[in-house]
Amino acid sequence: GGLLTCKTMMKLLIADDHPLFRAALHRATEDAVEDLRISETNSLDGVLEAIEGHDIDLLLLDLHMPGNHGLAGLATIRALRPGLASIIVSANDEPSVIRRALDLGAAGYLPKSAGVADLRDALRQVLDGEPWLPPSLRDVVARAQPSARDALLAERVGSLSAHQYKVLGLVAEGLLNKQIADRLGIQLRTVKAHMTRIMGRLGVRNRTQAIRVLHELGLADPSHRVESLEDDDGAG
């Protein structure tokens, strides 16, 4: 194998909320690519801060971590930094989910069951500007149906600023405007103004509809397999 050497110092951000998995990814990426400057975060807020500081070239992104809401986080990242290469690292290996992530601009998709050799291949190909999928999943993902609805929702979510996305995420967590103001250290009227803009950009009329947009782009976390009957009949 040997190390891949980058011509310039590449900056990689590992975004995952499991410390052990993050540490394993950190070691594996160091072994795979020379001269990588690696930083870590455990939340989408951390990713957005790194993006705003323009100090990352490559992102390893877990779909299921605080603030992310599945593919909604990816849509926001893609809108804020279109040139940033994002490799999704997820325990979710459903072909339809992978297809949705690639259609929304992910550069690669690495199931958490993958080995170090797969990670090395993924990093190399993506750094070369090529998309990457595990060989075993390429055919089934190619056959999965694209989602026109995703593209529309992603465009709307992607029109939000990083700050607006944070506000929407807190609304989705059930916080009231006053609690959001306290959490973010801003005025109550500022939160209300954000909400008005968010609803306008998402093309919705109320908070419930705004939350639903996030949930449509969100994904069930395979590590928390809780089957809930209430959610299936539309009563949720």
What features would you describe in this structure?
- The protein has 11 helices and 5 strands; from the N terminus they run E-H-E-H-E-H-E-H-E-H-H-H-H-H-H-H.
- The protein has 236 residues and is of the alpha/beta class.
- It is globular, with a radius of gyration of 18 Å.
- It has a 5-stranded parallel beta sheet with strand order 2-1-3-4-5, sandwiched between helices.
Key words describing this protein structure:
5 strands; 236 residues; 15% strand; alpha/beta; five-stranded parallel beta sheet
What class, by secondary structure content? Answer: alpha/beta
Largest sheet: 5 strands, parallel
What percent of the residues sit in helical stretches (DSSP H or I)? 40-55%
Overall 3D shape:
globular
Mean pLDDT: 87
Order of helices and strands: EHEHEHEHEHHHHHHH
Strand content: 5-15%
Q: Determine the number of helices (DSSP H or I, runs of at least 4 residues).
A: 11
Strand order in the sheet with the most strands: 2-1-3-4-5
The radius of gyration over CA amounts to: 18 Å
pLDDT below 50 for ≥5 consecutive residues: which ranges?
A: 225-236
Strands, total number: 5
* N-end to C-end Cα span: 50 Å
Helices, strands, pairings?
Elements: E1 4-15, H1 19-32, E2 33-41, H2 44-52, E3 58-61, H3 71-80, E4 85-90, H4 95-103, E5 108-111, H5 116-127, H6 138-143, H7 148-158, H8 162-172, H9 177-184, H10 188-202, H11 207-217
Parallel strand pairs: 1-2, 1-3, 3-4, 4-5
Brief overview:
The chain has 236 residues and is an alpha/beta fold.
